[in-house]
Amino acid sequence: MDIVFSDHAEFQLKKRRISKELVKKAVLNPQSIEPSFRGRNLLRSMIGDKLLEVVIKTEGSVVIVITGYYLN
């Protein structure tokens, strides 16, 4: 599985000070997955005491990270 980051994700993750490595861990081993609109999925994973949510879209064997943010 290849994980690629959209330009939007690159910008937002940098702005929010969330490392790509944390996002990759959440994508590879999410604690929950919920369907979203336009064929996207919301992946959630606890990182320390924070809940990281990553929005992805899958195209074949490629996972495209749309954005990521902490919920709390």
TrEMBL record:
InterPro entries: DUF4258 (IPR025354). It holds the Pfam family DUF4258. It comes from Candidatus Roizmanbacteria bacterium RIFCSPLOWO2_01_FULL_35_13. This is DUF4258 domain-containing protein.
